[in-house]
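lol ok so funny story. i was supposed to be doing the assay writeup but got distracted and ended up predicting the structure for this chain instead. priorities right. anyway since i did it might as well share w the group, maybe its usefull for someone
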Amino acid sequence: MSQPPTPGVPTPLHIKRLRPTDVAAVVERDPRLIIPVGTCEQHGPHLPLGSDTIIVERLACDLSAEFKVLTAPTVEYGVNVETERGFAGNASLRKKTLHRLLNDLLDHWEATGIREFILLTAHEQDAHLEALSTVITSGARVRVVDILSVGIVDLLEGQSEPMHGDEVDTSLMLYIAPELVDMTLAQDYMMSRNELRRYRRGWLKVPRASAGSIGRPTLATAEKGRALYERIYLRIRDRIFVAPPAET
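and the output, tada:
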């Protein structure tokens, strides 16, 4: 989701907008590449199917703009948990499909000089994260950044951890893209810790009783979303981009 540059505002370095010579010049200076990995799945009737994608694209754009690091076209699909009832528009990859897709992409980019890949995702399903974390390169470093692993519990009111289409996702979307959120449709649906663990592992389908979201989206606010975004951004910024680069 790249937008035309705004005068006076730092511009993200989207490789799809750059010529090969421009990309080569950036890689010579900083051989890192951010790859946003999203999903296309239900997050409840109040959120768009691409919520995970929109969130990580915004992070990728802001990080790219600040640090002048290249960002790749978004991988729009992930590994979704099955649902007991259908939701129009859902589209999922198998774990091995996502894994092979990323292997192929990283192989080509590594051959052109990329020495570190930063895979940003906002999807906590085990199979999805396994597909990312098991990608193989010839020598380049691969860093998988699950943005929901950042400590944010103290910023929440009704949850002890991130869930799905919940207080976290909904607050972030209210901050990033409020025009895409309809809070009048938000519905809470809670799971036990054991059920949530089984859900993340893919052992438990999204129950029919759920509207597609899990957690308490009705507690979401734009102010909370801003606090969550700033916490997540600063943690990733400091740990991945400000920390000394890996030796090559």
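The longest helix spans residues 222-242. The chain has one domain: 13-239.
back to the writeup now i swear
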